[in-house]
Amino acid sequence: MSHELCTPLNTVLGYPEIIQEDLAEGNTQNCQKDLQRVVNASQHLLTLINEALDLSRIEAGKLDLRWELHDIASIAQNALDTVCPAAAKSETVCALIMGEKVGVQWVDATRLRQCLLNLLSNAAKFTIKGHISLSVRIIGEGTGRMLHFVVHNTGPGMGPEGLQRLFTPFVQLDGESTRHQGAGLGLSITRHLARLMGGKLAVESAPGQGSAFTLSLPLHGAMSQAQLPPLLDAARAA
To answer: What burial letters (b/e) apply to 154-181, b meaning 16+ CB within 10 Å?
Structure first.
């Protein structure tokens, strides 16, 4: 992590000195751009730190979930709205497709949103002049019903080698550690969170055909919050 952290930190420390020198000389021409570089680097650094902390908590079994009733469509729309501006810069169109009767469900809204943001942000990084869709539906019957979130993108796709290293911590999808913002932890954390919530994360992809990530979570139906921790313990044990 040292290189990953030092790169944005050097920007955060270095550019204010440049701005100070420019202001001392009465030159404000580049100050706005330099300040934006500091903001971008600070956000990048915060993302790296949060990802590393999350992974540490998960591996130590110290990440607790908060099960509450939430409107799933609102969570999905919020996650998509957050990513749409970045996708628009690459001339990529985003769409939300909601299935029938998804409604309100027992979920950890914070962790579900984190999973969706990781998947959607990843899609936005690799999709240029294409489409990103988030579809949400309920599949199965009875106690086997599942919430399915499918993030599909029309990016370059991946071959067997890429799929093999896809969930390896600190490895980017293209094998580079610095080309894209982040520490290569997003997908690994998402898979851990999916398992922690009793679900799973799957991917289908092929070169030139884009990628589809499916987050599947069990529906807890009318269970009370007091009944949910045993499910969490079972997920951890698995």
So the answer is: bbbbbeeebbeebbebebbbeeeeeeee
Per residue in 126-167, pLDDT (tens digit) is: 899 999 999 999 998 877 889 999 999 998 888 877 777 777
CB 133 within 8 A of CB 181: no
For 93, the 3-state DSSP assignment is: strand
Please state the length of the chain.
238
**What per-residue confidence (pLDDT) applies to 44?**
75
Give the other-Cβ count within 10 Å of 27's Cβ.
11
Residue type, 216: S
User: How remote is the C-alpha of 5 from its chain's centroid?
Assistant: 19
Distance CA(107)–CA(113), nearest Å, equals 10
Q: What's residue 122's pLDDT?
A: 87
Q: Give the distance, in angstroms, between the CA of residue 189 and the centroid of all CA atoms in the same chain.
A: 8
Residues 83 and 121 sit within 8 Å (Cβ to Cβ): yes
Residue in 87, 75, 81, 85 with CA at minimum distance from that of residue 113: 75
Angle at 234 between CA 55 and CA 185, to 5 degrees: 15
Q: Side-chain half-sphere of 133: how many Cα atoms within 13 Å?
A: 11
- Amino acid (1-letter code) at residue 11: T
Q: How far is CA 41 from the centre of its chain?
A: 18
C-beta neighbour count of 135 within 10 angstroms: 17
